[in-house]
Design brief:
mainly beta, Jelly Rolls, four-stranded antiparallel sheet, 10% helix, six-stranded antiparallel sheet, rod-shaped, 2 helices
Length: 277
Amino acid sequence: MTAFNDSLDTAGPPGSMEPRLIDDEEQVMRRALQQRLDVDHYFPVDDPTPGLVDNEDTGQHRRVTFREKADPQAVAEDTLEAYAVEAGGKSGLKVMNESGLAKILLQENDAHDALVINLDGDDLAAVLPDAVDDETIEFDAVGGHLQAKAGRYGQSAQAVGTTDVDRDSGDYADLDGMSVTLTTAGGNLVCQFAAPVRGGAVLLALLVDGAVKVETNSGPASSTSYQRPVAIHWLEANVAAGEHTVKAQWAKGGTSQIHQNGTSYKRVLTVVELPSI
């Protein structure tokens, strides 16, 4: 609470007071008004001229202090009224328009140590769709929140194979379960496949939308009974917006059959979308 040097007595001075004393009472009243106006407004007393208030910024708001009050019965046309309220034991700032629509905009949190914006899903649905940058973020009307658009923040998907598979042909074939489909807004796709394989030489290929992008040949292990890691990677840059499918294929690179024991050692195809810069 602000302490004032002078009391503001609206009942004085009495009419019976001597004229020479009334001037002193008026000076007290002026000082009392200045002290109270100076709480929320810029109302400085000039120095070195005692009592003179002549700064060119006098009267401007430097803060607004709201007192708690009940909802007004009506608000004047073309105006918006703001006032403090106590709701659920928490202080808040409420506004009301000329139609009588009232809303608490700011409110204390449960711990009374912070102020939070008090907006619900209906408020967001009415305001945010037109207020966001629709190139990068969008409003989820169902969830009532903002979210980055697909392709503007990146996304990822992964396929994991857990079955045992064999290949005894030099012709490429799809690896069981090694297919990932992403719907993008246009960006870059980082494609990675890895698996432990045993047997002879292994040919690997990564395909994007049916087209072979990269191939590799992993020679045979010193023993066909050993598991050895094989991997292949590809960056598909600047894909068009829409659905894209990445697949991993394999074939034997020599005369020996090749095996991938997914039940014991998983095979994994991972696709990560990165936004275009």
